[in-house]
Amino acid sequence: MSVARWSPMKELEEMRRDMERLFEEFFEPFRRRRRWWRGLEEGVIVPNIELYDRKNELVLRAELPGVDKKDIDLTITENNLTIKGEVKRKEEIKEEDYYVSEIRYGSFSRTIPLPIEIDSEKAKATFKDGVLEIVLPKKEEAKPKEIKVEVS
Predict the structure, then answer these.
(1) CB of 51 within 8 A of CB of 60?
(2) CA 12, 14, 16, 18 torsion: positive or negative?
(3) What is the CATH number of domain 49-141?
(4) Percent of the chain at pLDDT exceeding 90
(5) What is the pTM of this model?
(6) Does residue 64 carry a pLDDT above 90?
(7) Do β-strands 57-63 and 49-54 pair in parallel, antiparallel, or remain unpaired?
(8) Are 125 and 58 spatial neighbours (Cβ–Cβ below 8 Å)?
(9) Which DSSP symbol is given to 118?
(10) Nearby residues of 47 by Cβ (< 8 Å), 6 or more positions away
(11) Residue 7, class by beta-carbon neighbours within 10 Å (0-12 exposed, 13-18 middle, 19+ buried)?
(12) pLDDT at residue 151, rounded to an integer
């Protein structure tokens, strides 16, 4: 029996080859992966959002390209904000006439947990250029309070 010397460089080289093979399989030409993408053609629509604090209120902005404002429904509870809507096709095009179709159509719903309690009665929403902006005033008890500390 011969003794083989352990080489960490050999193991790193094998790992590099394995990673290259993994990436090659993933990024192989699109026509070969088409079967894999079939399941994603009717994909889920998830609007991108940003939620930030502005002193006495929270502001939520959501990207809703292709959505008509009459197709947006907002529901506010103590701890959550739910945005529902629908992206509709502007015209009917037969499937065989497409070369590429990456735009998702259909209904969507996204619930965003709110970090603090808000006054839902005073909430306001605007929709412009595909961006929904919702201003959520904080409840009085949720607003930051300043306390002076005396140093002696």
Answers:
(1) yes
(2) negative
(3) 2.60.40.790
(4) 34
(5) 0.63
(6) yes
(7) antiparallel
(8) no
(9) B
(10) 62, 63, 64, 83, 85, 108, 110, 132
(11) exposed
(12) 85
Look at the alpha carbons of 38, 39, 45, 50 in this order and tell me if their dihedral is positive or negative. negative
Instruction: Please answer whether residues 83 and 110 qualify as being in contact, where contact means their C-beta atoms are separated by less than 8 angstroms.
Output: yes
Task: Note the pLDDT tens digit of each residue in 90-136.
Answer: 888 888 888 887 788 889 999 999 999 898 899 999 999 999 999 99
Token readout for 79 is 């701890």
Half-sphere exposure of 147 (CA within 13 A, CB side): 4
Which whole-number Å values give the CA distances from 47 to 70, 100, 131, in the listed order? 17, 22, 10
- The type of residue at 149 is V
2 CA to centre of own chain: 57
CA 6 distance to own-chain centroid: 46
80-87 sheet: strands from edge to edge = 73-76, 80-87, 106-113
Task: Tell me how far apart the alpha carbons of residues 129 and 45 are, in angstroms, rounded to a whole number.
Answer: 18
